[in-house]
Amino acid sequence: MKAKSISIKTVIILVFLIALLILTGGSLYIVFDNWMKSAEDTTATLADELHREIITEVNEYMHVPRHIVEVNRGLIERKIVEIDNSAERDVFFINSMKTHIDEEVYSFSFGTNAGEYYGARKNQLNEIEVMINNSETNGESWYYSIDEQHRLVKKVVNAGSFDPRTRDWFKAAIDSEEVVFSPVYKHFVMHDLTVSAAVPIYDDSGELYGVLSSHMTLNRINENLEEISRGNKALIAIVERDTGYVIANSIGTDNFMENSDGIFERITVEDLDDKALSGIYNNYINMDEYEKLDVEGDAYQSRISPYQANGIDWLVISTVPLSLITNDLFLGMQKALAYSLSISTALFLIFVFGVKRLLSPIDELVRVNEKLIKGDLTARAGPSKYIEVGRLADSFNETADELYHLIYNLESEVEMRTYELFNEKERFRTTLLSVGDGVIATDKKGLVTVMNPIAENLTGWSLSEAKGKHFIDVFKIINEQTREICEDPVQKVLDTGGIVELANHTVLIAKNGRETPIEDSVGPIKAQSGKITGVVIVFRDFSDKKEKLKEIEYLSFHDHLTGLYNRRYMEDTIARLDQDRNLPLAIMVIDVNGLKLTNDAFGHKMGDELLVRVSNILKEKCRSVDIVGRMGGDEFCVLLPKTSLEEAEQVKKRILNRASNTKIDSIVVSLAVGFAVKENKGQDIKDVMTIADNNMYKDKLKYGKAMRNRTIETVLKNINHKYDQEQIHTERVSQYCEEIARAMGFEENKIQEIKTAGILHDIGKIMVPSEILNKPSKLTDEEFEIIKRHPETSYQILKSVDEYSVFAEDVLYHHERPDGKGYPEGLIGDEIPINSRIIAVADAYEAMTAKRPYQNPKSKDEALEELVRCSGTQFDLKIVDIFVNIMRKA
After folding, report:
1. Which whole-number Å values give the CA distances from 763 to 90, 714, 826, in the listed order?
2. Is the pTM of this model over 0.70?
């Protein structure tokens, strides 16, 4: 029997050992193989998610500057914001930067076509500074700090000479005609790369006014990419597709460098000294496999996406090493292998031991079972000399082992969950105390349990003082308008179980009596079972927002230049006043005669002053119950409730009398006024408005012509006052033009036209500063460019007056040359009107023979010889011959 037992034991042990080895080895192979595939899939998923996050970050980063110029371009194009108005301009740029103070934009600016540059930027302390670059700063960029009222305090930085027209973003915007991103460039002040979003702005005549742009530094993208890649060993780079130049990266390397000579140089992806990133880029460019890449024995999951916008063609590259997953996986495999070997060895030893004790008594199993029932989880069945009992004991022991592990793991799980719950509670408390809004929590009885610092500041109560007190004793709120105490929102939530929001005009009275307008939301705190365990109140100081809403409301109904009500308000008011109790209701329409002519002749600043002066006249001469508004442009409107036709006529007379006695410099204020009265409810208010408009236009036709003629006379007087020799010059030019025209056989009416054109040919010099007109030395290039604009100004002035429009083209082209080198349009030969060619000869001769601040006069013969020398190129050959003959006979 003993020999037979040994034989069976040996066979059983051998069979068990072989089966154990096959089972363990096969299981480990399957598990490890699945783990490796899972690691690859996990890495690929991680790479996809990471890449999507990067693309989202880049989209958000690049959206901000583009959004800024898209939103604000219309304000400048529609002249809602006047760049020439320094106060309005500064507030515009400051508010734009404050709106995006926490975003990536470094500066927001406008460069004019004349080389002026204005804007605002964030300094290193994230404070806003205003930038000015114009003739007053001698073409240098000066940065000013500002106070809380957006006023300039002092100059803090002189960044040196700067011309926006030379910058890549300015040129790119002009070429694109729409919002465009500039090429990457070195910032002219900061030690960083910069990219700009820019859009061209054109004036009403279609001429380029300037370029509106927002600028951001690329080092901030580096910081974002480093944040994204932190913790997952990912490598990220953004490069230009065609050149490989680095836009941003996550490896902590600058996107540019300075060579030994201090010269700025950009770096390529090859310069990053990372073979994974450069390998991915090169494979992508060469259309090779790049998503799975092996570099020096390391495997990577890589992704590339093009990022394109107007002016931008970038590649976003990201790669995640497989080792991110496999390192921990291999460590887990080693532990699993050691664990499996240990378990297998233990099982083998147990099995051997069990085989030896196969015939252990059955009651041993019963005793062990009783120990297990009583909680002794370490109890195990002893050996048995019986084979059947031994097999049963082994099965029993395996069941006991499994039960032990389950219970042990349950205790560990409970301990872990308890720790996590504690941490979650602490995180909640930390969050509650850190949020920017005031937060108060109560229990289900409405007693305060938690207050964060913001709530303490707004209520004037500390947590130690308020804890345990009823909410309504700490949080005293009233209606701002009625001063009545508001209903307890906490009690309302406890009663209804729903979320409650405070009504508008709610004011919080602090412990010290300070009143603060607030807005809040109150909601229940519920257990998992749905039972209410308390209430949480989140509230904030509404003061700043309330003031901004008031300001927005004011701007939405008022004209920004005059302070009068705007068209929207007036149209709403007309509908509101159209009721029987306001009859008779008079509507008066006022138009400023010659506003366009004033703008062309004296500049828009003078035109704005004219509009402001008119608005003051209307407010002064209308009654307090009358409603005065600016409908837009040069048109105003007055609504006069309970006003008869005779009373409206008296108001009109007062306005016209005051206007006729008002002057701005030498300009007389001239108004066209029409009105109509709704006398019974059967009349349509729209018809009354139409009648008022028609009456105004009749008035305008009657007096507008005389006003424009007076303005032309005023312009001529002002020119003569600015330039000592101008009257003599124009009279002589007119005389010479008359003599040439007679010699050429012109009809008498044409002779009178050219004679008048000679008087008016330099009327555009009204816009040229007197210091340039009377400068004794040679003009600079910039000053000459200003002089060259006077024919176009002359054209605009004369074109706006019907009686003088016939002379507009004659004076526009009197500086053109037959050889095409003249200005403003470079016309050639007979393309130049004959009258313009005559004026050119007369003007040149008079200029050469007259005494000027910058030259001594030529003799008659010297001047004629100069005309002959330049005939055919600068002057018309035939006209020069005629004029020379006239002068030699004289």
Report:
1. 34, 11, 21
2. no
